[in-house]
Amino acid sequence: MIIAMLLLVAAQDNAQGPASAPQSSEPMRPVTNPGTWVTNADYPAAAMRDEMEGTTGFRLTVGPDGLPRRCEVTASSGSEELDAATCRLIMERARFQIQRDEKGVRLGGTYSNRIRWQIPDDYLDRLAASGFQLDTSRPALPRGPVPDPAMVTLDAAAHYPAKALAARQEGDVRMMLAVDALGKVSGCTVVDGSMNKELDDAACALMRTNGAFDPALDSDGKPVKSTVPATFNWVLPRPASADAAPTSLPPAVREFPMNRSGLMEASVRIGTDGEATDCRYRNEGAVDEAPNPCDAIGGRARYIPFSDANGRPVAKRVTFRTEVRIEDDPAPGAAPAK
């Protein structure tokens, strides 16, 4: 489980509180167990996703009514998310005994402690087994939705559709998720399926039932509706260890990687000085995840120029293409189409 644990090392702090409130010379005493002020469910989603850990030291200024008035970070964890969560949660949940002087006047005071944010070792194992992946190449501004920690550790094996599991079918389902202002997945559309309807339907059903995000924020910091691209990878359960006895199960079955017709073409001019310019690129669906070769051509790079029959440099345009064609298989014995 995620550990968010208070280290009980409260110490007296001589910092003064509000001038209007007499101050106790002793640290304020909590009414409740400080270990309950932060729970395992409080780990900030963004910090967990980025595997941020650390210890945040804080100091509270407490009023005469026993309620915290101010929280100050005295030692940063190294993560703004964790530091901000520390003060926010402590301010909401910390309560203190009312203290009085010898005349019965209520006293304010201070309280210092630390909170340690620690991700357990098995989190990385659960993350590796997770089928859910968020497409971070298309960030929304000022802040897109952030998946809940439980969502990014969804174990595909625990939710595998029965028929696909029995047939040992695997696949990747690319989706567009609609996320409401509360962070709930309100809609799911398959934009690139696995060629298996059961896996496609199960991925969207899982997103609707288990999908949970910190919602997107607008420029004023208010939660808003959003859409976000995501992928769910259905991968059959693997042996628990490399030493496990081999099984007689047939190999996994998944979609052929080039299962859509399409064309990728790039064209670039190589000048007489060897400079690559005017690179043109088009992609018509077959290899939509392929990198754009124009990104790697040009800049300061220079190439040996082409030459004519007399050895003089000449400019040339170089075109290269990759094409995927999916056609009906010819009748047995017939010659392939050209």
Outline the fold blueprint.
Elements: E1 3-7, H1 45-49, E2 54-62, E3 68-75, H2 80-93, E4 99-100, E5 106-107, E6 109-118, H3 122-129, E7 132-134, E8 146-147, H4 149-152, H5 162-166, E9 171-179, E10 185-192, H6 197-210, E11 213-214, E12 216-217, E13 223-224, E14 226-234, E15 262-270, E16 276-283, E17 306-307, E18 313-314, E19 316-324
Antiparallel strand pairs: 1-6, 2-3, 2-6, 4-5, 7-14, 8-11, 9-10, 9-14, 12-13, 15-16, 15-19, 17-18
Describe the 3D structure.
With 338 residues, the chain is an alpha+beta fold. The chain folds into three domains: 3-118, TonB (TolA/TonB C-terminal domain), CATH 3.30.2420; 122-234, 2-Layer Sandwich (Fusion Protein Consisting Of Minor Coat Protein, Glycine Rich Linker, Tola, And A His Tag, Chain: A, Domain 2), CATH 3.30.1150; 262-324, no CATH class. Helix content is 15%, strand content 30%. The protein has six helices and 19 strands. The strands form seven sheets. It has a four-stranded antiparallel β-sheet with strand order 1-6-2-3, with helices on one face. A four-stranded antiparallel β-sheet has the order 7-14-9-10, covered by helices on one side. The protein has a three-stranded antiparallel β-sheet with strand order 16-15-19, with no helix packed on it. The radius of gyration is 30 Å and the shape is elongated. Mean pLDDT is 80; it is low at 1-19.
Can you give keywords for this protein?
338 residues; alpha+beta; TolA/TonB C-terminal domain; Fusion Protein Consisting Of Minor Coat Protein, Glycine Rich Linker, Tola, And A His Tag, Chain: A, Domain 2; 3 domains; 4-stranded antiparallel beta sheet; 19 strands; 30% strand
